[in-house]
Specification:
Blueprint (H helix, E strand, L loop, with lengths): L3 H8 L6 H11 L3 H14 L8 H24 L1 H11 L2 E2 L4 E3 L4 E3 L3 E4 L4 E3 L3 E3 L9 E4 L4 E2 L4 E3 L3 E4 L4 E2 L4 E3 L8 H5 L12 E3 L4 E2 L4 E2 L4 E2 L4 E2 L4 E2 L7 E5 L2 E6 L22 H17 L1
Parallel strand pairs: 1-4, 2-5, 3-6, 4-7, 5-8, 6-9, 7-10, 8-11, 9-12, 10-13, 12-15, 13-16, 14-17, 15-18, 17-19
Antiparallel strand pairs: 19-20
Length: 291
């Protein structure tokens, strides 16, 4: 039988404290003093800027540059601390490497090979695990670049070739991190080796910010991935791909400026059908925009 006394006691909320009662009374009161107090509290919680005269702003303006100048100078001096530490963590390290920000956070047994003139932004995370007898490997070849906030999961191998650009907030994972089966995930079973496949991003490729490159993917030379895309299959060289999942929209995209261009539209290829001719003109206009 339900104990109504116990149920009623459980439903009662504890009384407000003295400070809580004062705040509640202040909110409900509409006197001039209460309204002034509300405005003061609101200003203290979210202070608003007051417009200043131009004469004052001219005096204050140099302090803006001084503020960031001190920050940049201090950050650049820290390279003498961050640089040796990161080099000691890498298996090989090239010349002219730039560490632009915090020391990259490296977790696990990953072997890191850094080429010449590589750029590594701040808040970069390189995560790996003990999943096989062979240590995972991350290869950053010459002139490749990792932007701020890039997160790499390396349990097999990730190869980033020459002149590859990976801007901020990208994710590159050569594994799912957990088994697909729900019971195995619940039991914290380690993922199978067959579900770990290497990734290669070929030279000159450009990954849009916020994109995620999944396991087993090869992105061809010079290919461009649109921002916030999820790449789950191979992308051919010199192709524009985007979406979730990413699909190839244009082939022959982004070739070197020195490459010989073929004519994209000639009168002999035009259809005699008016609608077909219109479609050809639309395709030509789209190609002109993207090229």
């Amino acid at each position: 039988m339900l104990d109504l006394t116990e149920t009623k006691a459980e439903s009662q909320e504890p009384p407000l404290s003295a400070i809580g009662r004062f705040i509640l009374k202040l909110k409900r009161t509409q006197s001039p003093a209460a309204r002034a107090a509300k405005r003061l509290v609101s200003y203290l919680r979210s202070p608003r800027l007051l417009p200043l005269p131009r004469v004052v702003l001219k005096v204050v303006r140099p302090f803006y540059f001084l503020h960031f100048g001190i920050i940049y100078a201090f950050r650049n001096l820290l390279i003498f601390y961050r640089g040796p530490l990161f080099q000691a963590r890498c298996a090989s390290f090239g010349r002219g490497v730039t560490l632009d920000g915090k020391l990259p956070f490296v977790l696990g047994p990953v072997q890191i090979d850094v080429g010449n003139d590589v750029f590594i932004g701040g808040n970069v995370v390189i995560n790996s695990g003990y999943v096989s007898d062979k240590p995972p490997r991350l290869i950053l070849k010459d002139r490749s670049a990792l932007g701020w906030g890039v997160y790499l999961t390396v349990n097999s191998e990730i190869v980033i070739e020459e002149d590859v650009r990976i801007p901020h907030d990208c994710r590159i994972s050569d594994s799912d991190g957990h088994p697909r089966e729900v019971d195995l995930r619940a039991a914290n079973v380690q993922q199978s080796l067959k579900d770990i496949r290497p990734i290669r991003i070929c030279r000159g490729a450009w990954i849009g910010n916020g994109s995620h490159v999944m396991k087993g993917v090869t992105i061809g030379e010079g290919a461009i991935i649109g921002a916030n895309s999820v790449v789950i299959s191979d992308v051919p060289p010199f192709a524009l791909a985007m979406g979730n999942p990413a699909e190839v929209l244009i082939r022959g995209f982004g070739r070197p400026s020195t490459a010989k261009r073929k004519p994209r539209y000639t009168p002999t290829e035009a259809s005699t059908d008016p609608e077909g001719q219109a479609d050809g003109e639309v395709q030509e206009a789209v190609a002109a925009v993207y090229h």
